[in-house]
Amino acid sequence: MLTQEVRNTLFDVADLNQLKSGLNRLPAVDVGEFITDLSPERRAIAFRILRKDQAISVFEYLPPEIQEELINALHDSQVFQIVEAMRPDDRAELFDELPAIVVKRLLQQLSTAERRATATILGYPEGTAGRVMTTEYVQLRQGLTVEQAIEKIRQADQDKETIYYAYVTDDNRKLMRVVSLRQLLFAQPDTLIRDVASDRLIQARTEMPQEEVAQLMKRYDLLAVPVVDREDRLVGIVTIDDVVDILEEEATEDIQKLAGVSGGDEAALSSPLVTMRKRLPWLVGVMGLYIGAASAIAPFQKVIALVPVLAVIMPIFSNTGGTVGIQALTVTIRGLGVGEVTPKDTLKILRKEILAACGTSLSLGLTMIGLSLIWAPPKDRWVAFAAGLVMAINVFVAVTLGTLLPMAMKRLKLDPAMISGPLLTTMLDAIGFIIFLSLISLALKVFPI
Amino acid sequence: MLTQEVRNTLFDVADLNQLKSGLNRLPAVDVGEFITDLSPERRAIAFRILRKDQAISVFEYLPPEIQEELINALHDSQVFQIVEAMRPDDRAELFDELPAIVVKRLLQQLSTAERRATATILGYPEGTAGRVMTTEYVQLRQGLTVEQAIEKIRQADQDKETIYYAYVTDDNRKLMRVVSLRQLLFAQPDTLIRDVASDRLIQARTEMPQEEVAQLMKRYDLLAVPVVDREDRLVGIVTIDDVVDILEEEATEDIQKLAGVSGGDEAALSSPLVTMRKRLPWLVGVMGLYIGAASAIAPFQKVIALVPVLAVIMPIFSNTGGTVGIQALTVTIRGLGVGEVTPKDTLKILRKEILAACGTSLSLGLTMIGLSLIWAPPKDRWVAFAAGLVMAINVFVAVTLGTLLPMAMKRLKLDPAMISGPLLTTMLDAIGFIIFLSLISLALKVFPI
């Protein structure tokens, strides 16, 4: 990463030559960050002085809105060179963000091969293997020897996203075997690749969700996985650098959905409007649900007027019960997210949660009784035992819902993280308050004060 | 992954030969999973019939408790072969889990080279680059030509964790350059590697936290990163497969800490006792904090008895305010976790959060007034405006604390995820309740009912 100091030096020198040699020497990702932080006019200048190959690499590291800005600011021929040289998967990602009219113009200018590659990728739905794959891989015919294969890899286009795996196909492009460059280097030069390459294929289908592709590569420690269509024909590969991004994206999405931030991940530095759009729906939803929960309390106002210590006690078991529920919910959703558990483990997890809840329930219930005894005026002390009992029950309800709800979502093929923390705590509040206040009302009827 | 069907077939055949050929053909990770699911006696049998090289690979995929069980069940000579052949980083991980006396015995039996490698790794604190690195990498001298370098890689031990990068060092083992196998293959055979290899070193120090190593490799799309000691001498490399695990582990830890699950990540299927140990401290802590919060309400019991609709309203703005706070907290902590923002962005983020809060605050405040008007009996309707006002204030307090607290933790070099959701909501409740009830008491004093 560039230190602030280096940035300032680069800024201050009006000498473009010095800036030029500096920017051409640095890693593309660092230059991308540097350019992103500049003002729009400076951005176009800094970008124009880059060497062509550096400009192409740097372009892929810029955020979509700045890519679009540069596309509008640069000459058409320059834009065309950059877009033509981009990797097909990065190009597809850019096209997703650009206005349709710009995409159409750019697509027309692309060479046939690049246009076809982009069209293939754009043909698959977002979030699938087909959409994140690249079409630049090394393909070998079955009959080659190891020496010929290595020679072929050496002559391959330097653009191939990885040369560390080569894919062996038959005449119909059907994927037959996979061989790593490592296997080739360690084999005798005159061996047939058929005898070196493995037919134990680990592959993804174009329609496989990207998080499953990531889990597959993680499980088998792969640097790239081949993607095949329904006829088992090789159409692309997904590489490890994409997988790292996918895993991080999915984790961010899970973590944010749990907190009630909706629809894709929100960057910490996005605009206030984006922030509101991502969060307000959940807040209004939660408040809406709370209308139900609070309507459950509203009829009990007389009881509360009689025993005001209830207003002190209720927030405690609401908050603590909510925490218990969120703990179980989070562990379950994360377990599903990293592929550690599946819905068929539901009973096993539930049994563990309920066993653990016995201890938790006892300790929280007793603490609740103790606390209520301290706060309640002498005449209301009996309330303490109802509070302890409801706290204990609440713990069981919380872990059960926290486990079963995401599992049920997963079984219904929905996103388990849609059961967010706020949704669960609201449900738990409603259940807890109704049980508690009903119990107190009943007691007041049987033994009127 | 093995289907349940395949498992049953493998189980049912008493024919060990068939099981043997089946287990020797499958990927090691699948066999590891299969063996983990067996009963202890069957485990030892299944493991014994594996081919030696397969046994070594499979062993690395077994959970530590089963590794320990097998170490006790197998012959010493068998155990020794396996441990000797393990990768130094995996071996260090195993030794972490084993009783000290077993580790001592195993270390004594290792060859000098392997013992030294393990001791080096175990010498670094957990969670640092030194601890997760491996010492099996390809090292080249500066004077070689490309052809000689490729030949050297070909002759290298097949055990090297990656051969896709080679590291060029001087006579004092100081790291000078890095070259990828790709660069070597595309270069002229008689070029000096000095002229092909890059001196733009991206490297980690042994004491660098593992998550920073992961972020570094992610940023520069590296398959491996060299690790150097304080004298810039090459001591190991960290490979991408470890990074994928580290990133996932760190995400799980963040997500669980946010939900108040303490100390490392909890597996969805861990034992009830582990579950209790990880969660109860937070629950008791949260309840403890709530004693403070509730003590703030306790003195207001008379006010509540006079205006019981307060007990209906308070849980709503407690829950909604908590949700607002958790949203801001989560986005900030995740932003820090993936390295997207740093404490110097605090003001930028705070400005965005406060701008977004203006809209949120207005809509939630108005909703609150509406709801309170519906529930309150006619004489208490004035309370609605206080509720709306406090709700609006609460939103600003929530986003401010949700942003500033984790940033402050980060600045103090503490883990930002220690500010968990339950901790924040408890603080927000206390603040909200005190402001609200004080406001109401004041109003009642000025305009007694």
TrEMBL record, chains A, B:
It comes from the Bacteria. The chain crosses the membrane at residues 280-300, 306-333, 354-376, 382-405, 426-447. Gene3D superfamilies: CBS-domain, MgtE N-terminal domain-like, SLC41 divalent cation transporters, integral membrane domain. Acts as a magnesium transporter. Belongs to the SLC41A transporter family. The keyword Transmembrane applies. It comes from Limnofasciculus baicalensis BBK-W-15. Keywords: CBS domain, Cell membrane, Magnesium, Membrane, Metal-binding, Transmembrane, Transmembrane helix, Transport. Homodimer. It is a multi-pass membrane protein. GO terms for molecular function: magnesium ion transmembrane transporter activity; metal ion binding. CDD domains: CBS_pair_Mg_transporter (cd04606). It is found in: Cell membrane; Membrane. This is Magnesium transporter MgtE. Residues 133-196, 197-253 form the CBS domain. GO terms for cellular component: plasma membrane. Its main location: membrane. Pfam families: CBS (PF00571), MgtE (PF01769), MgtE_N (PF03448).
